[in-house]
Amino acid sequence: MEVPTRPNRAGLTPEFTRAVIPQLRLPSAEEQTPENIKELLQLFRLILDNIPQAVFWKDRDSVYLGCNRNFAIDAGVEIPEEVVGKTDFDLAWTTEQARTYREMDRRVIESGEPQYHIVETLTLPDGKTIWVETNKVPLFDADNNVIGILGTYRDITGRKQAQEALRESQQMLQLIMDNIPQAIFWKDRNSVYQGCNRNFAIDAGVGATENIVGKTDYDLPWTREEADWYREVDRQVMETGIPQYHIIETQFQADGKKAWVDTNKIPLHDANGNVVGILGTYEDITERKQTEEALQRAHAELEQRVKERTAELSAANAQLKQEIHERKLLQAIEREQRTLAEALRDTAALLNSTLDLDEVLDRILSTIGRVVPHDTASIILVEDDMARMVRFRQRGKDVFQTRDLRRRFPLEDWPNLRQMIETKEPLIVQESRRSSDGGRWTEDNWVRSYLGAPIQIEDEVIGFINLNSATPGFFTPLHAERLQAFADQAAIAIQNARLYERAQELAALEERQRLARDLHDAVSQTLWTASLMADVLPTLWIEDRAEGERVLQKFQRLTRGALAEMRTLLLELRPAALVEAKLDDLLHQLAEAMMSRKKIDVSLSVEGECSLPAEVQVGLYRIAQETLNNIAKHSRATHVSVTLQCATGRVNLQISDNGRGFEPTRLPPERLGLSIMRERAEAIGADLQIASEIGAGTQISIVWPGDKKRAGLDAPEKVRPA
Hints:
Blueprint: H1 14-20, H2 34-50, E1 54-59, E2 64-67, H3 69-75, H4 95-111, E3 115-123, E4 129-140, E5 146-155, H5 157-179, E6 183-188, E7 193-196, H6 198-204, H7 224-240, E8 244-252, E9 258-269, E10 275-284, H8 286-298, H9 300-309, H10 311-326, H11 331-351, H12 357-367, E11 376-383, E12 386-394, E13 400-401, E14 408-410, H13 415-423, E15 427-429, E16 449-457, E17 460-469, H14 477-543, H15 545-573, H16 577-580, H17 583-597, E18 601-607, H18 614-635, E19 639-647, E20 650-657, H19 674-683, E21 687-692, E22 698-704, H20 708-711
Parallel strand pairs: 18-19
Antiparallel strand pairs: 1-2, 1-5, 3-4, 4-5, 6-7, 6-10, 8-9, 9-10, 11-12, 11-17, 12-13, 12-14, 15-16, 16-17, 19-20, 20-22, 21-22
Helix pairs in contact: 10-11, 10-14, 11-14, 12-14, 14-15, 15-17, 17-18, 18-19
C-alpha cells in the first residue's frame, strides 16, 4: 500500500489544547438528533484532520480509540479508523519507544495531571527516526473519573538538529579558544565569570573551564589589590561602553608566579545594544618586562655618568625648589615656580639628549621661550676674549638666522657683556635705547628692553644668552632668575657637547697613530726587507740560480704579505668594505698578512658559500683578527689552521694552532682580549668556545646558528664601526 507523505507540521501548544478540547463535547440528551450528531462528528473529524499536529486518544488500558490523519500517516495505517483497538506495540515504533509511551500514559491516567513538552523519539514506517514534542492530557467522564488520555505531538527534528549543530559549534568555539595562545574570559554586569578558555583556567587554578562559572576575582588566586583593580576596570568599560586596550598589570597566578600581562577588555552588548558584560583577553608579557628591566640595568652605568654631568644642574634645581618653598605662601608665585621647574626639567632633558654642538645651540633657542617670553633671542660664545654670535632667532620663526654669525668682536667693546663677566649675574636693561650697547646685536630699532645671562662653567663665562623685547620694562627679576637657571643648564649641555667633540677628535688621533704604528711595524718593515732582497737578487740569480729562486719565492711571499697588510689597513680606514667583500676573502687577507709578519704557516679551508648579515660578518672578522693577533704575539706557534664552514642556517669558524697553549681557567678574561671576543660573539648571537692545554696548542670555535632573532638582527644593515 502507498503510505501518504507526512506533512511539515508546527506545534500544538498546551494553551490551544485547553481551549479546543472543552468545545468538542457531545450534545445533551435534549439536543441529540441523528442529524446534529452526524454533523458534529464530521466537524470534529474535519478539525482533527486539518490541524498541523498529530492527535490520538486512548482508553485507560492505552488502547487506541481514534486518531487524526497526521497520526495515521506516522503510525503506518491507511485511514484513522484502522488505529482503533491497536496498542503502541502494533504500530511502527520500536518496542522500547512503545514501552516509554505507555509508561507516560500510565502516569497521566493515575495522577490525573497532564504532561506537556515531552521530548522523545518516534520511528516512522519508512524506518526514519524523528524527534517529537508530545503533550498528554487525561480524559474525564461526567463523574470526573479518568477514562483515558488525549495526546498530541509535533515534529521538532529540525529544532533538535539545530540544537545539536549549536552544541557542536560551541564545542568547536571552545576548542579554538583553548588552543589560541591568549587567555580569554567573559563576565556579566556584576563582574561574575560566565566562562573562559583553558589558558585562563590554568592561570586561575580552577581546573576545567566550566568551574569558572559563578566565581568572582575575589575567589581566584590574585591578590586583593589585583582583584579590586580588575573589577574597577570592568566597571569603567561597562559604564562607558568603551573598550580599553593594552592594560599593563600584574597577576598572581595559581602556581605562585607573579606575571605581567597585557590585557584588553571590551563591552558585550545584547540585541538592543545594552551592555550585558565584558569580554577580556590577555597575553603574558613577563619575559618582555624582564628584558626591559635587564636593559635598564645595562644602562645603569650610562645613567650614572649622566647624573655626574648634571650634578651642577641638580644643585641649581635644589636652589630653585628652596626658593619655591620659601614663597609657598604666595600662591600665584608658587604656581609660576612650579611651571618653571617643569619647563627646566623638560628643556634639560631635551638639551642633554644630544651631544652635537650645533643641535644643542639650536635647541637652546627653540626651547627658551618656555622659560622666558621674548621677541628675539641670540647666543654669544666667548673664545680667547673675543665674542662671536653663533645663533639668532626671531619669535614665531623656526629659522636660525646666520647674519653676522661669523663676525668676531672684542669683549671690551660691549659694556653689558663685561658687566656680566665681572658679576656672574644676569643683566636687565629696562630701556635699551638709553643703554650703552643695548640691542647692538640686532639691526632693528624696535628693541626696547634687554635681558642677558652668562653661560658659565666653574666660574668661567663661556658665553651669553641674550633676549630682546619691543616692550619697555618688559623683563623682571623673576625673568632674570629663570634665564640664569636655563643658562646653567645650557652651559652643561654646551660643555658636554664640547667634551664629546674633543673625545671624538682624540679617538680619531689615536686611531691614526695606531694605523701609523701598524704601517711602520708591518708594511714598512716588510717592504724594507723586500727592497734589500730586490737589490741582491740580480747578482744572486747569476751566481746561484737555486738560491736565487729560493730568495725570489721569499720575495714574492713578502710582497704578497705587504699587499695583504695594506688591504687590512685600508679596511680599518673604510669599515664599509668589511661587508662589501666576501668573508673568505677577508680571512685570506688576514692569513697572508700574518705569514708576512711571522714565520708561521697559515692554512685556510672554506666550505660552502657564506651570505651573512652585515653585523655578523663584521663580528666574525673581528674575532678572527683578534685571534690571529693573539697567536702571533703569544703562542709561539709554527702552524695555524683556519676553517670556515657555511651551510644553510649555520656558520662554523674554527682557528687552531700548534703553539704552547695556556690554562683558560687561570687566565683573567681581560687578558688576550678574550672578554672583547666574547662580547662580539654575544652581540651577533654566536657561541664562542675556547679549548687550550699547556703544550698542546689552542682551538677557538665560533658557531653562528643563523637565527636572526637570536642574533638580534632583522636584516643586513649598514656597518657600525667595530
